[in-house]
Design a protein that fits this description.
The protein has 14 helices and no strands. With about 400 residues, it is mainly alpha-helical. The protein has one domain (about 10-385). Helix 9 (about 240-265) runs antiparallel to helix 10 (about 270-300). The longest helix has about 40 residues, at about 190-225.
């Protein structure tokens, strides 16, 4: 580790940032459940009104591809806290983390097959092994590798999109309203389960291509920040905040807006691929701006209540991430109301706020009675090879 060991106390700002990231992830995933044509490379036939388009552009510009980056950064940061915990306990770090990542992989596969084939836990589990193999690299080296990954992958998407446009858009696709998700979600729980199971592997391959490199890059950036104990300092970002916000916020918004407009109105061809590449290059800047702004709020006047409300949600991030899939599945799939393609887009936003508010209250209630979230408890048992306390004394 660089510097002295972090104290054996939770960093509530890290938990609060993780809770904030869960809000953005929920705001994206609600479209994946509600719109059967989401992510198909075609203009949605179900959300085609001007208001629908406005909300889709806002979601793509401000949220999509941004919050999983923040979540990934915090995963890398928390990795260093796990290193410090193992060192304080005087136990070998590598075997402990191997068990943790294996447990996360099993949970991810179950989550993907049963609830949401577009889940990201399996990617985190495997990429965590890459981070484990590289856990002795210097922070500067980790930052260099991360920036190289982000620039290279974004540029590759831009070049691929430009080539596709110049050769007649070979990536153009036509998707009809008879989407398998629509059929499955409207035909009960068994059809829903079969659909998730059948789509799990191809969706994971797709996510590895579009999210894997950037998630690993953010792992490494979070790891470097954790090695420097950046978020445990009284005001860790003040020397850089103004400059980063002045540069990163407008560039991130412009790149996100270009991607959002293309993804909403001209999807499916080389232009969308090019726009996605530009979005990949600009999204880390917007993600960093979000993180800096939230840290400013946390440390400003009135920031303590905000941290107090968000931290329990982030402390149970694994349980809450899966719980979001349960809630969305009960609303939109054959596991419950089967409201796929039927809920108006403004109500989608309302459902996000309602689910998130319930999670805030439920997390605070649970952690007042239990030291860990239910899935965190299970993962901790696998990691430590012992049964943790279930209830608070």
């Amino acid at each position: 580790m660089t510097g002295p060991l972090p104290p054996a106390t939770r960093l509530h700002t890290v938990d609060a940032l993780r809770g904030f990231a869960l809000l953005g992830i929920l705001a994206v995933n609600v479209w994946a459940f509600a719109d059967p044509m989401y992510g198909t490379g075609a203009t949605s036939l179900f959300y085609a009104s001007p208001l629908d388009h406005v909300l889709r552009v806002l979601t793509s510009t401000l949220v999509e591809t941004k919050f999983y980056l923040l979540f990934s950064f915090l995963f890398g940061y928390s990795f260093t806290l796990q290193m410090a915990s193992a060192e304080r306990a005087g136990v070998a770090f590598v075997p402990r983390m191997l068990r943790r990542q294996l447990g996360l992989l099993v949970l991810g596969v179950l989550h993907g097959v049963l609830l949401f084939h577009g889940e990201i836990l399996t990617i985190y589990a495997v990429l965590g092994l890459v981070l484990l193999a590289a856990h002795r690299v210097r922070p500067k080296t980790a930052v260099l590798i991360a920036c190289t990954l982000l620039l290279t992958t974004g540029t590759l998407f831009v070049v691929a999109g430009a080539l596709a446009i110049s050769t007649g858009d070979p990536f153009d696709t036509v998707i009809t309203a008879s989407d398998p998700a629509l059929t499955a979600y409207r035909n009960g729980p068994l059809a829903t389960l079969a659909y998730h199971a059948s789509r799990f592997v191809p969706t994971q391959v797709f996510l590895w291509i579009i999210q894997g490199p950037s998630a690993l890059a953010m792992f490494l950036l979070g790891f470097a920040a954790g090695r420097q104990q950046l978020l445990s300092a009284p005001d860790p970002v003040q020397p850089y905040a103004r400059r980063l916000l002045a540069i990163g916020l407008p560039i991130g918004l412009l790149g996100g807006l270009f991607y959002g407009l293309v993804e909403t109105f001209i999807p499916g061809g080389g232009l969308e691929l090019l726009a996605f590449g530009i979005g990949q290059l600009s999204a880390p800047l917007l993600t960093a701006s979000y993180g800096l702004l939230m840290l400013r709020l946390f440390r400003g006047a009135g920031g303590e209540p905000l941290v107090r409300h968000l931290a329990p949600l982030g402390r149970m991030s694994l349980s809450n991430y899966v719980l979001q899939s349960v809630a969305l599945g009960l609303l939109f799939s054959g596991y419950g109301g089967a409201l796929i393609a039927e809920m108006p887009s403004p109500l989608l936003l309302v459902s996000v706020l309602v689910i998130f508010t319930v999670q805030l209250r439920l997390s605070a209630w649970w952690l007042a009675r239990h030291p860990y979230g239910p899935l965190e408890w299970l993962l901790r048992a696998v990691t430590l090879r012992q049964v943790p306390a279930w209830r608070r004394a």
